[in-house]
TrEMBL record:
Its EC number is 5.3.1.9. It is an enzyme of class 5 (isomerase). GO terms for biological process: gluconeogenesis; glycolytic process. This is glucose-6-phosphate isomerase. SUPFAM superfamilies: RmlC-like cupins. GO terms for cellular component: cytoplasm. It comes from Maribellus luteus. Pathway: Carbohydrate degradation; glycolysis; D-glyceraldehyde 3-phosphate and glycerone phosphate from D-glucose: step 2/4. One of its GO terms (molecular function) is glucose-6-phosphate isomerase activity. It holds the Pfam family GPI. InterPro entries: G6P_isomerase_prok, RmlC-like_jellyroll, RmlC_Cupin_sf.
Length: 260
């Protein structure tokens, strides 16, 4: 299997879950998200599954870029998931909304995902209120980029129980997660559920009825994100490309009627 070139000397580890940083890279000690920590966002909170569901390292990159990352208020994070299932659900993150950022003039900030290994579904909905608005399940594989816009509730799902999912993402350096409304609805508006080997979707009855749109990733070339380069390489060649992540108000019109 040909590996996607991330342009970062960072390798995902399986046992235990985590990351190994090359000599030219920096990164923190990983944070482990356990099954007990995410149960409230699952369809079946009492399910069995991997004890450590995923491992996350926020603020990684090449050492030579650390000053410019701090200056631009950008942060690159990497996440790797365990293989397997959570009962009859796929391995996944808990749903959340990005907290409003002072640096972003009170906006919730977007996130730019890039899949490195495995198969992903980036699920997102316009709001975590009773009416979730438009709901999307974006299917992505290695090299695919998916953007989650400001204020949207979302979760990342592993769509292959046999291959651990690994991805990177550009985030605001002041990142924070708001779980309250999602947890108040006992999860997001749609639950991914396995029926045998097929991954299907079941509505969460805590929300008003909605339609789920399944699709492949949109093109983001108008933002300077081109498919032939990794999102870290794009930053390396032109650091200002991702200024919209910590400052989403700079492209306010872009988010109107956004389709991921």
């Amino acid at each position: 299997m040909e590996l996607f070139n991330t342009n970062l000397n960072i390798q995902a580890l399986i046992n235990p879950l985590g990351f190994e940083y090359g000599d030219d890279c920096f990164g923190p000690k990983v944070e482990q998200r356990t099954l007990d920590a995410i149960r409230k966002s699952l369809k079946n909170p009492h399910c069995n599954g991997p004890e450590v569901v995923y491992s996350i390292a926020m603020d990684v990159g090449k050492k030579i870029h650390k000053p410019v990352l701090e200056e631009l208020h950008l942060l690159f994070g990497v996440v790797t998931y365990a293989a397997g299932k959570l009962g009859d659900e796929p391995v996944r993150s808990q749903g959340h909304i990005h907290s409003k950022s002072v640096y972003a003039k009170g906006w919730s900030t977007p996130e730019v995902y890039e899949i490195w290994q495995g198969k992903a579904i980036i699920y997102m909905q316009e709001t975590a209120k009773d009416n979730p608005g438009r709901c999307f399940a974006v299917h992505a594989g290695p090299g695919d980029v998916v953007i989650v816009p400001p204020f949207w509730a979302h979760a990342t799902i592993s769509a292959d129980p046999f291959v651990p999912l690994t991805f990177g993402a550009w985030c605001d350096r002041e990142y924070g997660f708001d779980y309250d409304e999602v947890r108040a609805h006992k999860g997001l508006a749609w639950f991914p559920v396995y029926k045998g080997d097929e991954l299907t979707w079941e509505p969460n009855k805590s929300y008003t009825p909605s339609v789920l749109i399944e699709k492949s990733p949109a093109s983001y070339e108008s933002l300077g994100i081109t498919p032939e380069k990794s999102i870290y390489k794009i930053f390396e060649d032109n650091p200002g490309i991702f200024e919209f992540v910590p400052k989403p108000h700079l492209i306010e019109q872009y988010w109107t009627n956004f389709i991921p």
